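Help needed: design a sequence for this.
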């Protein structure tokens, strides 16, 4: 079965002191989509201080990765099909869309002794 993944909306960056004349104001729409043939999504309770592998379920190569944390920061280590592992601190939300280089492995590490829940979404491009 195929699914239409879509990330729509936008982001805005407006000065807190109002918008004086000629002040920079950023308003950028986002409209990203991808057909995925496999997907998995689930919650992980991080109860140990060591890296916890993300289970890919039926997904082999993830072209869409979303990590949402609740309760604390996590370190997300991502390995791509290029073979390079990258470590990214995530304190709330991480979104990665990759058309050409899929993600093949992910693990999560919480801040020591900090109960943390993580919501995972993985999608594999058609």
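Sure. Designed sequence:
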């Amino acid at each position: 079965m195929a699914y239409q993944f879509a990330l729509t909306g936008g982001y805005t960056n407006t000065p807190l002191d109002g918008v004086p004349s000629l002040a920079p104001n950023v308003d950028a729409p986002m409209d990203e989509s991808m057909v995925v043939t496999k997907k998995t999504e689930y919650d992980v309770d991080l109860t140990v201080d060591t890296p916890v592998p993300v289970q890919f379920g039926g997904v082999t190569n993830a072209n869409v990765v979303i990590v949402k944390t609740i309760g604390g920061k996590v370190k997300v280590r991502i390995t791509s099909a290029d073979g390079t592992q990258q470590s990214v601190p995530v304190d709330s939300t991480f979104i990665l869309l990759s058309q050409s280089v899929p993600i093949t492995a992910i693990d999560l590490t919480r801040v020591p002794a900090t109960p943390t829940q993580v919501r995972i979404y993985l999608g594999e491009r058609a």
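The CA atoms of residues 45 and 117 lie 5 Å apart.
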